Amino acid sequence: MMGLDGKHIAVLLEELYEDPEFWYPYYRFQEAGAKVTTVAPKIKQYKSKHGYPATADIAASDVKAENFDAVIIPGGYSPDHMRRSRDLVAFLKEAFGQGKIIAAICHGPWMLASVGAAKGRKVTAFFSIKDDLVNAGAEFVDEEVVRDGKIITSRTPADLPAFCREIIDALGG
Q1: Is residue 81 one of the residues assigned to a domain?
Q2: For the chain, N or C: smaller number of CB within 10 Å?
Q3: Could you read off the pLDDT of 9-57 as tens digits, one per residue?
Q4: What's the burial of 90, exposed, middle or buried (CB within 10 Å: 0-12/13-18/19+)?
Q5: How far apart are CA 4 and CA 139, in angstroms?
Q6: Is 8 a known active-site residue?
């Protein structure tokens, strides 16, 4: 495996993120050589579902999608909070429009629905948001990882190894 030297990955952050879905990719992609930046509505600490804090590196209002190769959207309850941030939604919409790799796990695909990135795509997610994705125009399947063009989705923390392998492959690593 070549690695991700020179790649820049944004990991979105908001309150009540699912711990392993944030931290596993955060450290895995650093280990592979990528620069990983946490992007959130504001530069502050955010608590996970289990109370573990993570600090945003930069506010969504201060980032440009052109500076990133991929955007990762962890799940938990954080995507419901992410959707409320105009700046986070705008950043993701810009990244999608520029053809960046966008990877979402668990409830993360809610953000794909919010920016129109689910429409016409084959996706997976945590089963409880199936209806939301179907209503957003996606074809929902129950698989550990699904890659449709530059959109990569997975269901739960148990899918993280396949999810991260697929992202690394998509980035050419």
Answers
A1: yes
A2: N
A3: 999 999 999 999 999 999 999 999 999 999 999 999 999 999 999 999 9
A4: middle
A5: 30
A6: no
pLDDT tens-digit series, residues 55-83: 999 999 999 999 999 999 999 999 999 99
How many other CB atoms are there within 10 angstroms of residue 86's CB atom? 11
Output the domain CATH number for residue 149. Answer: 3.40.50.880
And the tokens for 109? 């695909």
Examine residue 100 and state whether it is found in any structural domain, yes or no.
Answer: yes
Phi, psi of 59 (to 5 degrees): -80, 145
Is residue 1's pLDDT more than 70? no
d(CA 140, CA 129): 10
Do the domain assignments include residue 3? no
How many folded domains does the chain comprise?
Answer: 1
Q: Which of 8, 50, 81, 107 is catalytic?
A: 107
Tokens standing for 23? 């931290």
Which residues form the domain of 83?
8-170
pLDDT confidence bin for 2, thresholds 50/70/90: low
Residue 39 half-sphere exposure toward CB, CA atoms < 13 A: 30
At 26, the amino acid letter reads Y
